[in-house]
Design brief:
Structural class: alpha/beta
Number of helices: 12
Strand content: 5-15%
Number of domains: 2
Number of strands: 11
CATH superfamily of the largest domain: Nitrogenase molybdenum iron protein domain
CATH topology of the largest domain: Rossmann fold
Radius of gyration: 22 Å
Length: 273
């Protein structure tokens, strides 16, 4: 009995020591936030990006995001939380990064994932940093299942353009381009001679429209004045426009699951056409 008690106490001490050794983290990037909440223990997360608590920008369920303290990403806010590690993205103020580096606070810097493989590697890196690599593999497995489920039943592709107000279009070499390919679409960006991220003027879209347009707006009429342009309204009479929430364009990670689900639903809807 005494031996069993000692073993139990030892196990509890080891578990407590391991928990204490895990870093306390502040994330100042919404894409990282979405991964972090799935792989880290809640008590490890000292702060997340304020974008994650904005329904228009969040990459996670808003009710989950509201369980965590949010910052606007300033060095003062981050330092006040006394993190062991900061995770940032490509659009953080250089002044914030400089200040954190001067204070010798470790920073993991992430880029915008340009492919599924790159996004999955970022998940592994985040999970390893928080001390839970197995949880990272679990997230990756769920992404792979979603991609398999969204695979089209045949090799036919729908010529499609992702287009937002102002004409910005994601092209070859972006995560959005890969997700289109994997769900039965053909990104027409290259056919217009566009680069990885480029602008397609409305005149070009009207002169040579694709088979379908995915409008990067809350829906195909609200939140984007360009979609209410008389010429675009006329184009909609012969070319289907479907909403593709802008928040699904910004991140990889678990957002891929939502993105391919939306793309798959659109393709099924268009099949009778």
């Amino acid at each position: 009995m005494r031996t069993a008690t000692c073993l139990l106490l030892f196990a509890l001490c080891v578990s407590t020591a391991q928990a204490a050794a895990r870093p306390r983290i502040v994330s100042i990037n919404p894409c990282v936030d979405a991964v972090l909440v799935q792989v880290a223990d809640p008590q490890q997360i000292l702060g997340i990006s304020h974008y994650s608590q904005d329904s228009r920008a969040t990459s996670m369920p808003i009710e989950v995001a509201r369980h965590f303290h949010a910052t606007s990403g300033t060095a003062e806010e981050v330092v006040a939380l006394a993190p062991d590690l900061v995770m940032s993205g490509p659009h953080v103020s250089p002044a914030t990064i400089f200040a954190l580096e001067r204070l010798r606070i470790p920073i993991m810097k992430f880029t915008v994932a340009a492919s599924v493989a790159q996004s999955e590697q970022e998940i592994r890196n985040i999970a390893l940093a928080v001390g839970e690599p197995a949880r990272g593999e679990k997230v990756i497995a769920s992404i792979e299942r979603a991609l398999a489920e969204a695979r089209p039943p045949d090799s036919k592709t729908v010529p499609t353009l992702m287009w937002m107000s102002g004409g910005m279009v994601p092209g070859t070499g972006t995560l959005a381009d890969e997700l289109l390919q994997r769900t039965g679409f053909r990104n027409m960006s290259a056919a217009y001679g566009l680069q990885q991220w480029d602008v397609l003027p409305l005149e070009y879209l009207l002169a040579s429209p694709p088979a379908m347009v995915l409008s990067l707006a809350p829906d195909d009429a609200v939140g984007d004045r360009m979609l209410l342009h008389p010429a675009v309204m006329k184009l909609k009479e012969r070319v289907p426009f479907r909403a593709y929430p802008f928040r699904l364009l910004q991140c990889g990670g678990p957002t891929i699951i939502q993105a391919v689900a939306r793309l798959s639903a659109v393709r099924r809807e268009l099949e009778p056409r």
